[in-house]
Amino acid sequence: MTPFRTGCALVALIIATPALAQTGAPAPSDADLAALVRAQAAEIATLKSRLDRLETNAVVAQAAAPAAPVQQTGAAPQPQLAQTGEPRRTVPFAPQLAPPGPADRSVAQAVAARDNPSGLTTEWGAGLPVFHSADGVYTFKPRGRILTDVSSSFGSKYDGRNITTTGMRALRLGLEGGVGTHFFYQFESDFSENEVDVVTAFVGWRNRITPGLDYDVRAGHLFNDRSFEGSTGSDSTPFLERTTVATAIIPQRGFYGIGVMPRIFWKTGHASVTVTGDRIDGTQTVGDSRTVLGRAHWNPIKSDTGVLHVGLWGFDESLSSVAGTLTRNTVIGGRFNGALRVSSGPLTGGTGTTGYGVELGGYRGPLWVMGEAGQRNARLDGGRPDFVSKAWSVSGGLFLTGDLPPYNPRLGSFGQPKVLKPTFDGGVGAIELTARYESLDYSDLLTGGDGWAATVGVNWYLNSFTRFQVNAIQWNTDNRAGDYVGNDSGQTVSARVGVTF
Q1: How many angstroms separate the Cα of 322 from the Cα of each of 135, 196, 280?
Q2: Pick among 3.40.50.2300, 2.40.160.10, 1.10.10.10, 2.60.40.1120: CATH of 102-500
């Protein structure tokens, strides 16, 4: 360090005596030289003090640093948390399904995600990753869906029905996650009507009763467990719109309500009971309506390539004092043609509703069939007889590419498919042909109408979360009230591009 200090002193001396470097300047006096030497000595002392402090700090830091561990011969290697290259993936409920998100997992799946041997903290699911903490306790996943539709109707005797429209069937953004193996949550909002609408928003708890018998309990803003397609998400239905059983045989509050839903699962089925008030509406000046709903499904035949599905469901609803309007205008030939509906006509004075239905179907290889039927009795005040609504449907599909239908045996509904040959990997995707006949009858009322629709369609799944759908519909309505009365028929062609993540 001595040469370094001497160099610093010389630099300071040169900087401090610019006059010595100039030519032609007058010679300094003895007093000036003495003052200059004293100033230089002071600067050199200051620099030396700073260097001493720097050297002292460096020595202290080196002494405080921990010594490198000495590897002992024959000692067992310490476990490492470094991630391996093996992919992390939750096993789905059926081979033809995409893996479930954190809020839809069983206890066994949650335990497997926690006890992850690969050490990976990111798992790729359907569209977006699932994030896991290093200790496996916390999970988190963004979620959402984008469903864009176009629809064109023609052939009606009413020009007001022969229109072409566009719309967002769903435009959702949300999140889901879990803490440990038991606690989970989900929140999702929809923006499809160009305004914010809260859809699912709940917390839940799951556990195992005995091997092969699990349960969970959800509390919050809940989606109905009612009918086969009524329990299927809008991003998983095989047609652009749900069947009339799902859209007409329904509580007055709709598909959602705030309440609690315990569910129990066994190897060949599930059962649920839901007790809710109104959906989120921000109104607390009067009491809520009360709805009790139950559903169960059973798979008496279940194999890797086939399932027989049997389902029963029902609900009872007591309406609040401000929810007595029971007027219905139900989709029959395309969701985004507001003029194309089966109408009950004006109906007020409702006190409650009761509905029930049955499901029967299944799949064998790439072919699936499902039949549904339901009835809804709306109770009226003033001693008037009930308003009875009836609906039924038969639908089916065939995967030309050999993929299995995306049937979820845990919930008894359709889910996101696992495509065998995704287009993004150089494959053709999954191609499905579909057909459906459905009927709706409100004619129990003097002002009530009826209608039917026959639909053929094709679905092209590029991968498990991207699809194109086209439906061609022949429809017929016979309304007794409203702007479009009498027998009328026509055609609608609708198309959709959808992404779910």
Answers
A1: 51, 24, 15
A2: 2.40.160.10
The identity of residue 338, as a single letter, is: G
Q: Name, in order, each residue with C-beta under 8 angstroms of 116's C-beta and a sequence gap of 6 or more.
A: 88, 132, 136
Distance CA 488, CA 484 (A): 8
In this structure, are residues 167 and 194 in contact, taking their beta carbons and an 8 Å threshold?
no
Residues 7 and 161: their CA atoms lie apart, in Å, by 95
Rounding to the nearest 10 degrees, give the CA dihedral for residues 194, 415, 109, 223. Answer: 50
Q: How many residues does the chain have?
A: 501
DSSP lists the bridge partners of residue 269 as: 266, 298
Count CB-CB contacts under 10 A for residue 38. 9
From the list 126, 148, 150, 129, the residue with the least C-alpha distance to 140 is 129
Structure tokens at 383: 């001693």
Residue 179 DSSP SS3:
strand
CA distance 161 to 155: 9
Two structure tokens written together for 167:
């719309």
Note whether 231 and 261 are within 8 A (CB): no
Based on C-alpha coordinates, what's the Rg of the chain? Answer: 35
Cα separation, 96 vs 418, in Å, equals 5
Query: Contact at 8 Å (CB) between 230 and 257?
Result: no
285, pLDDT greater than 70 = yes
Mean pLDDT value of segment 3-22: 45
Asked if the model's pLDDT at residue 158 lies above 80, the reply is yes
Structure tokens at 335: 């969701």
* Two tokens, residue 193: 């009507």
Which percentage of the chain shows pLDDT scores above 90? 67
pLDDT digits (tens, 9 = 90+) for 96-127: 777 777 777 777 777 776 666 555 677 766 67
Within 13 Å of residue 213, how many CA atoms lie on the same side as its CB? 2
Tokens of 43: 């600067």
DSSP 417: B
Distances (CA, A) of 251 to 85, 91, 319, 397, 460: 50, 35, 10, 29, 33
The neighbouring-strand residues paired with 456 are: 435, 472
Q: Is 306 helix (H, G, I), strand (E, B) or coil?
A: strand
Measuring CA to CA, which residue among 149, 104, 160, 161 is closest to residue 469? Answer: 149
AA identity, residue 84: T
